[in-house]
Fold this protein.
Amino acid sequence: APSTPPTAASPAAILENDGVLVTGGSILDVFDRLEVLESTSEAVINATAIGQVSKMSDAVIQELRTAFKIG
């Protein structure tokens, strides 16, 4: 089960040992979000091949949210 259920602000959840749960206003919206999640996951997995992956700071995340008008 997801630790935090999907919401409008965070429309995807990774289910431990089960897969993912993605929500959206339409099938196209859900597919788009799933595609972004898949690409991001692949990038993180590939990045681990060259070293430890660093978490972005909350300030950087907030800056990105502001720039892209999300949350």
